[in-house]
Amino acid sequence: MSVTIKDVAREAGVSVATVSRVLNGNCNVSEDSAERVRDAITKLNYSPNFLGRNLRKCETNVILCVMPKSEHSLYSKIVTGMQRYASKVGYDIITAVSDGVPSAEARVMNMLYNRTVDGVVLLGTLFDAQSLNRLAMNYDVALCCDGVTGADVLTVAVDDEIAAIDAVNTLIAKGHRDIGFIGTTSEAISSTARENGYRHALQAAGIPYREELVYRDSYEYPCGLDAMNYFCGLEKRPTAIFAVSDLLAIAAIHRGVELGVKIGEEISVMGFDNISMCEMMLPTVSTVEQPCEKMGEQVISKLIENIHSTVKDNKYYTVDHKIILRQSTGD
Question: Rounded CA gap, 168 and 152, in Å?
């Protein structure tokens, strides 16, 4: 039986990715690890099958990242983390934007099908679980920032429900009981999980859920404006609002200011994501911070391991979030 790269990794006590880096002459390997790999190669008489690797296009050392929007700082931070880790291990990241159009996302995936890239990371994908599962059977695919219900695919994201619970609990701890919610009609895991977190936090605090304090539409900026119009038109308007994204929270704040509402005093607003704009506007925006760069680093690390392994890791990994308090909640 021929010796494989996994045998070398096992003998050297390192990962398959480390063996691959040594074989490719990558300098981002400690001398101790490189020496152990070289000793294992000699001991096992391992001969790399470079022809086979080239035929499988495994030496492109390029990973594709597909995002729905290019101007969203959340995605740019994730890509920064991806690039930081990739450069350390001899990989490059190229990006493509789908603009939320299914045909556009499907078209750029041709780079994966024709082996122009070794793998793909999808941010907020439009593919359903069945399509993703079929893809993952033949290609190296990962999801980041937002998972897909029923998808057996490597995923790295925050625990959206727990993060939402923490956000709403923060508002409750400040004495709020009439808490509005700006959500979406999207079936994405992040959207539904954040609404579930809102509901569970209210329930745990003994606060009745009131459908009139919930406004659902889309993630687009105008929907945040409309949401604040709606809440301010209620006979008993909320004293605090939790929005499932910073963009919606920022829009709600802008409209509130236009309507003469004292944000942080009469109505507190909490967003989700901690995009750059949260610190740039007045009032500054309280939010749930996603560790975007950490997510980017982790998803690339795990995907590269999958690229070099015959046993795929399709786990759903969660990273820690953080509540950031600013002026929009009176801090």
Answer: 30
> From the first residue on, what is the mean pLDDT of each consecutive set of 10 residues in the chain (331 residues)?
82 88 70 83 70 50 90 87 93 90 84 87 90 89 92 95 98 98 89 96 97 94 96 96 97 97 97 93 96 96 92 93 97 80
Q: How many other C-beta atoms are found inside a 10 Å radius of the C-beta of residue 73?
A: 16
**168, 198 contact by CB (below 8 A):** yes
pLDDT digits (tens, 9 = 90+) for 219-274: 899 999 999 999 999 999 999 999 999 999 999 999 999 999 999 999 999 999 99
- Give me the number of domains the chain comprises: 3
Burial class (CB in 10 A: 0-12, 13-18, 19+), 270: buried
CB 157 within 8 A of CB 305: no
Angle at which helix 221-232 crosses helix 246-258, to 10 degrees, equals 50
Q: What CA–CA distance (Å, rounded) separates 18 from 20?
A: 5
Q: How many whole angstroms separate alpha carbon 196 and alpha carbon 188?
A: 12
Q: Give me the CATH number covering residue 28.
A: 1.10.260.40
Residues 66 and 144 reside in one and the same domain: yes
User: Can you read off the two tokens belonging to residue 174?
Assistant: 């400040």
The residues that bridge with 180 in the sheet, in sequence order, are: 241
Are 91 and 179 contained in the same domain?
no
Give this prediction's pTM: 0.78
Q: Is residue 212 part of a domain?
A: yes
Q: Minimal CA–CA distance to 269: which of 173, 144, 181?
A: 181
What is the DSSP pairing of strand 322-324 with strand 287-289? antiparallel
- Domain-embedded: residue 325: no
Cα gap 177→156, rounded to integer Å: 33
CATH number at residue 132: 3.40.50.2300
239 contacts: CB under 8 Å, gap ≥ 6? 176, 177, 178, 179, 266, 267, 268
